[in-house]
Amino acid sequence: DPTYVTRDFVAHLRLRHRCDYSVLADFEADEESMFARALRDSLKTAGFEAEVEEDDRILAEVLAQSAREAGSDSASSTDGTDGNDNGGDGSSDSGGSSSSSEVGSVAAAAATVTAE
Predict the structure, then answer these.
(1) 3-state SS, one letter per residue, for the chain
(2) How would you write the pLDDT of the chain (116 residues) with one tens digit per residue?
C-alpha cells in the first residue's frame, strides 16, 4: 500500500527490506567474475540481451579455436619431432610462423570481442 505511513522506520526496514546475501552473492567467485556477471546482467535488463549473447558466442568460438590450436600443437610435439627439424645442417627453419599467425588471429578475434 503506497499510502501507508510507518511509525517505526527501523522495524519497517527489518521487515520489508531484508536481504539474503547467500542468494545475491557468489562467495566462491573472484571480484573480476562478479563484476563481469553484474555488467552482463545490467546489459540484459537494459535491453541489450542480443549483444550480450553475441559477445558470449564470439568468446566461446575464440576459446574453442584456441583449444583446438593448443591440441594440435601438443600433438605435433608428442610425435617425437619438435617441428624444427632442419636435417642437422645447423640452419634454422621458420616452422613456427604459421602457429604464431594462428595465435595472432585468435588474439585479434579476442581483441574484437573486448572492443565491442
Answers:
(1) CCCCCCCCHHHHHHHHCCCCHHHHCCCCCCHHHHHHHHHHHHHHHCCCHHHHHHHHHHHHHHHHHHHHHHHHHHHHHCCCCCCCCCCCCCCCCCCCHHHHHHHHHHHHHHHHHHHC
(2) 788 888 898 998 888 888 787 777 788 999 999 898 889 899 989 999 898 899 889 999 999 999 999 988 776 666 555 545 554 454 444 444 444 444 455 555 555 544 44
